[in-house]
């Protein structure tokens, strides 16, 4: 990203952190839609089962998709054959549609890809946030046009984790993320993570091995139901802002 793009991303992240209701969320997404080469955008909320599968989509915020696509999606039961949706819970990293489409193998998946392309949904990215302890998930889907450039992909990947959290926050503003109790050592390490310290730097500060730090970081991520290190930091900062500290044992 250019320095100008990075400055813009920082301003977007600041606004995302202030989103508390769906009206603000929708307004932000509409502005983002106008500022970036985005063709369609939507956020969905769902439930995941013990097998880490999406069992139900129970709410949809449609920013700019054609309603006919969602009608087609629902009427033809495309959720069952959606290769992007069914891949996200197993590996919650950002999914580039063209990469997923190129790997489909079953007739049902091929039918889905054909239908998506008929609606112009060939290039884009999807992002998921999963909270297995709560059985909840949010999905951000963005169709781009005409081509997903590295700069645009980097911008979307920077914004998406925070935007998914804002979506969940706007849906249930009084229900903070529930974290498993952190040990005192895990809490210490989380604090240094929030200061941007690397595992090696934390090891030097606390006088422990880098391998031990990695072990505790992994536990922090797991207990916060986070997707990765940055996501764990974002979740813990959200809890502090809402007045709910991360519990430590």
From TrEMBL:
PROSITE patterns: HTH_LUXR_1, HTH_LUXR_2. Keywords: DNA-binding, Transcription, Transcription regulation. This is HTH luxR-type domain-containing protein. GO terms for biological process: regulation of DNA-templated transcription. The keyword DNA-binding applies. Residues 175-240 form the HTH luxR-type domain. GO terms for molecular function: DNA binding.
